[in-house]
Write a structure and sequence with these properties.
Length: 247
Amino acid sequence: MGEDDRGVRTIEDVLGLLDGLFAGGGDRWTEDGAAWWDGFYEDRGKPVPFFVEKPDENLVSYRERGLLPDGGRVLDLGCGPGRNTLYLASLGYEVDAVDLSGAAIGWARERAREAGADGVRFVCGDAFTAALDGPYDLVYDSGCFHHLPPHRRVTYLAFLERVLTPGGHVALTAFAAGEGGMGSELPDAEFYRRGRLEGGLAYTDRSLRAIFAGLTEVELRRMRDEPAESPVFGESFLWTGLFRRAA
């Protein structure tokens, strides 16, 4: 037994221990997973739905229906190539955008320069430990949450508590259960037995409501399918949710 084998004393120690169960499993949410995502974003021409330069249809819908704050600070969590980042910046929000992948951040920065969105602050790293200058009036997450292992939901909710301003909103898209392979429907415990996340976790509306029960639900629905010629991105294998923190 090594001298550090009995070093678990805090909640973060426990979370780190659980993280280690997925080491070497090729999972996409850890610091080690940054290399996986860098490879994923390397070929920009491959037919990946969210490589398009279009914002999410639900995000546009929230804005058009007056469900989002009128101005303020926004965090785009897991921004990828920046399609939602640039939309939010075009509306006049002060946007911070964070992603684990340096390749994704590089691509997003290029798009921002081309669009003249000079005010966006891009951060490469783990959002939970990065130096993010909150509080934020809106945290927008398009596909980050469903790549977290179950125990890191605790970290996610604590993160929202830390960075979200009173009365602020959090919006997310996540794999929907029952969609034929878009996200795994295995029970939480099974991921720890297998030591991998099977490409991401699928959720039901009931489970999302339970996880975000500390926030007020504004809307929870399936994302609408959008045709290729649409100016917005939409795939029905995703849930879209908008929640508000108490003022």
